[in-house]
Structures are given as C-alpha cells and as structure tokens.
Amino acid sequence: MAEEVKKVTITENTESAEIDEEIEETDEYVESPERTEFRRKRVKRIKLILVLLLIIFLIIPNILCGILLYQLNKTNKDMEILREEIKISKEEIERKNREAAAAAQAQQEKEEKEAQYGVENLVQLNLTDEEKYPGKQLVYLTFDDGPSKYTNEILDILEEHDAKATFFVLAKEGFDDEYNRIIDDGHTLAMHSYTHKYSVIYASMENYREDIYSLSDFLTEKTGVKPKFYRFPGGSSNTISKIGIQDMLHFLGEEGIVHFDWNVSSEDAVPRMLEASTIVKNVVNGIGDKKESVVLMHDSAAKRSTVEALPIIIETLQMKGNVVFLPITDGTEQVYHVREKVSEKESETKETANEKTPVIQSNEIESEEMESDVTKAVEEAVSEAFSEEVAEALSEAEKLKEDAKSVETDNIESSDNEEDN
Ligand code: ZN
C-alpha cells in the first residue's frame, strides 16, 4: 500500500515537472493569472481522478481478492470437514449393514432350529443335567414298584416341594390317572416289570423280552408316551437271573432302552417296614457330597414310612442350598452296576453270569449294623435259610463272599419280591 502511494506521488511530480516545462517553453507569451489558476485547478482535478482511479483499480480488487481467498480457504476447510464426516458416515453405514446382516443370519438360523426342534426344547438342546445345573448336587429320586395307593400322595409331596422324580412302574390296572399324572407333573415314567415275578422274567431270554415288550406296550397305551428308561427287577447286578446279563443288556441296547440302577439306597425294600427317620438317615447320609445321586425308594402299599420320610428328605436336602431334584432324562449320566461289554471278553462274562445260580432274594438286612460288604453278603445268604431255596443259598454263601467284594452294598433290591405284586 505504501509503495503504491509513493508511486502515485512520483507520478504526480513527473506530471508537474512536464507542465512546468510546458510553461517554460511557452514563456515567450505572457499568460494571464486567471488562466494559470484554471490550469492549476485542472491539474489538481486530474491528480484527484488519477488517485481515485488508482484506488478503484488497485486497492479494491486486492481487497476483493483477499475476501475471496478468505472465503475459498473457509470453503476448503468446510469441505474437508464434510469429507471427513462423509467418510465416518460411510464407515458407520457399512458397520451397521454388517451388523444387520449378521443379525439377520442369526435370526434365520434360530428360526430354522426352532422349526426343527421346537422353541421350548431349543434352550435345553443337547445339554446334560450337569451342564444345565453347574455346581449343583443332582439328586434323582426313584420310586420302584408303583403305582400304589400312595402314588398320588407322593406326587402331591413332590409338587409341593417343586421336586421332580422318576417312577419305575409295573403294569397295574386301575391306575390310569396315576400313570398320566406322573408324566403331566413333569416326572419320568419308566419301566420296571410287567409281571415282577423274578422266576418268570429271568427264566429265559424269551420271557425277559416278553416282559419288557408287554410293559412298554401297556404304558404306551395308557399314556401315549413310549417309555425309554428301565430298571432291572433286583438291579442289573442281581444274582437271580438264569440268563446272562450281557444278553439282556444287548437286547436293551438294540431297543434303545437305557437302564438305571442306583448309588444310594433308602433300604426301604426290607420286608419289615423301617422307621421313617431311618429312611431319612439312609438317604441323606447316602447322598452326602455326591455330585450325582440316584436314590432307590419304593412306591408300594406296604411302604407307608417311605411316604412319611419323603418330605423330610426333600426339606433336609433343600436346606443345603445346592441340591436339585431332577427326573431321569437323556441329559442324566447313567448310573449302573453292570453295563454292556463289547470286548472279546463278552463270552467269558456271559459264562460267568450264567454260572450264578438263582439264589439271592435277600430278606432282612440290618444295614446299619453291618460293617462290610462281605459280612452283608454272607448274612443275606444265611437269611435265605427261611426261603424255599435253603440248601442252595448256604452252598452259595462262600461263593458270595468272593462276589460281594466287587459288588456295592446296595446291589440287591431286597424287597423286589413277588409279594409286592
Ligand atoms: Zn421292584
């Protein structure tokens, strides 16, 4: 700006000098003072116009340029911000699209599975009881030989305590409501025996198959549900059977039937009725800290004290805070005394099993007083002196000593005798 003013001044000086020269050149004639004044004024006007023109043509464009540059700069910055925002928006949209696609896919998979398995079963799909109830003590209360006149009372107690159980039942007429209520209440209706006559069931493989088929058909007809779970009369380790246990297990496997023994016994099977307090003690102590307990009890007209013991058992265990009472299902880990062998030793085992003569249908067992499995087995054998198979029982007592070493204390469902029918 200062430079421009200087320039203007220089130009002015140059012009004045020219005018002066002009005056000097025309010095010959004398100019009138009016004319001189007029010329001066004219020069001044021209100077003023020139200055104004300079201002208009040099300064204003510069200012405008400045303003434009500023605006341009500002616009550029705004555009930069916008570009950044667009970029972020694009990323956001892409991310949201990806999320939406993933969600849609998950929803589709869920719908497909729901259609396949049903909504309710989806949550429970393929989970074991242990996975469903991590850290809990799993207790499976099981009742053999029912239904009886106490079945409804047992079901009431279970319902009141929000506990589930399994009923290994016989085929009895007049108990249609009980069979159905067991299922409707969420318990498991399982097979025990059609006749419950040991001498018949275990006389031949044909008889054994017939017993199971008859019971399965009977229960399916009564309830519309085909039973899957089974308990051997006398347990899988019974010594009554004349047929090999492996043959029976093989048959069950072919039929898709899963057998369950027990690892806790209420001992309520003994012929004389136990005190309810004794049954409570047997069960609660038997469960102890076991992670999984399958408890043997009986639903029988002769077992009133079991019904009396039941609410006390449940309440005592519930007080521990980490016990759940579940029905036996596909998610339950199998508890067995003997299971199917598929090795080359199978034939050998069959022979051994066949050698076992039908001796034991033990009677009075004072389990509390017994200190070892061996003693128990011997006493059981001796107690058979009161049965019809006296001689055989005594001759087998020694043999039993050996056997008993490998057999659990409660391997014989003592009162599964024919009178229970
Ligand atoms: Zn039984």
Annotate the secondary structure layout.
Layout: H1 2-25, H2 33-117, H3 119-124, H4 129-132, E1 137-144, H5 151-160, E2 165-170, H6 176-184, E3 188-193, H7 198-201, H8 205-223, E4 229-230, H9 245-255, E5 258-259, E6 264-265, H10 276-287, E7 292-298, H11 304-318, E8 323-325, H12 346-355, H13 373-383, H14 390-405
Parallel strand pairs: 1-2, 1-7, 1-8, 2-3, 4-5, 6-7
Helix pairs in contact: 5-11, 10-11, 13-14
What does this protein structure show overall?
By secondary structure, the chain is of the alpha/beta class. It has a domain at 136-331 and 348-364 and 374-415: Glycoside hydrolase/deacetylase (TIM Barrel). The chain contains 14 helices and eight strands. It has helices at 2-25, 33-117, 119-124, 129-132, 151-160, 176-184, 198-201, 205-223, 245-255, 276-287, 304-318, 346-355, 373-383, 390-405, and strands spanning 137-144, 165-170, 188-193, 229-230, 258-259, 264-265, 292-298, 323-325. The strands form two sheets. Strands 1, 2, 3, 6, 7 and 8 form a six-stranded parallel beta sheet that branches. Helix 10 crosses helix 11 (304-318). The radius of gyration is 52 Å and the shape is rod-shaped. The chain starts with a helix and ends in a 16-residue tail after the last helix. Residues 144-145, 192, 196, 233, 413, 416 line the site of zinc ion. Zinc ion binds at residues 144-145, 192, 196, 233, 413, 416.
Task: Give a brief rundown of this model.
This protein is an alpha/beta fold and about 425 residues long. About 55% of the residues lie in helices and about 10% in strands.
